[in-house]
Amino acid sequence: MDKKVTLTNDEWRKILTPEQYSVMREAGTEAAFCNAYWNHHGKGKYHCAACDNLIFDASTKFDSGTGWPSFYEPVKGSVRTVQDTSYGMVRQEVRCARCDSHLGHVFDDGPAPTGLRYCMNSVSLKFVAEN
């Protein structure tokens, strides 16, 4: 991971689309089953859409049936988690370790080998295909 990225809200607004800003800087959520990567099966890598930090390898992606891209394991050191108590629930929010952008949430109902489901927002990710 490269050096931490810290920008003002105005700087983030210039870099991100309005939907990305809502999700990544205000912890919003995109709609299920109609986002870019929920049914995407390409080989490659998923990066943070805000700072280009490598977050997931496509080999860890699986179909969770939730309508959002789901992975069982992030790249080591690429994310951090914080407790999220919004909407009357207790969940673990997943944030980019480099720029602190909201990516989604992690749940303990995923497949082996980790048993985890990193349920991500497509707008928070950028896919880079393998050549």
Summarize the structure in words.
The protein has a single domain, classed as Metal Binding Protein, Guanine Nucleotide Exchange Factor, Chain A, CATH 2.170.150.20. The chain contains 2 helices and 9 strands. The chain has 131 residues and is mainly beta. The model has no long low-confidence stretch (mean pLDDT 96). It has helices at residues 9-15, 18-24; strands at residues 44-48, 54-57, 61-62, 70-71, 79-84, 91-96, 102-107, 117-120, 125-129. The longest helix has 7 residues, at 9-15. The chain is 11% helix and 31% strand. It is globular and about 40 Å long. Strand 1 and strand 2 form a beta hairpin. The strands form 2 sheets. It has a 6-stranded antiparallel beta sheet, with no helix packed on it. The chain has a 3-stranded antiparallel beta sheet with strand order 2-1-9, with no helix packed on it. The chain starts with 8 loop residues before the first helix and ends with a strand.
Summed up:
Helix content is 11%, strand content 31%. The protein has helices at 9-15, 18-24; strands spanning 44-48, 54-57, 61-62, 70-71, 79-84, 91-96, 102-107, 117-120, 125-129.
Number of helices: 2
Instruction: Give me the CATH superfamily.
Output: Peptide methionine sulfoxide reductase
Compute the separation of the termini in Å.
Answer: 22 Å
Rounded to an integer in angstroms, the radius of gyration calculated over CA atoms is 14 Å
Strand arrangement within the widest β-sheet reads 3-4-8-7-6-5
In CATH's first tier, which class applies? Mainly Beta
What is the ordering of alpha helices and beta strands? HHEEEEEEEEE
| Overall CATH architecture | Beta Complex
Q: Roughly what percent helix?
A: 10-25%
Number of strands: 9
Mean pLDDT level: 96
Tell me the domain tally: 1
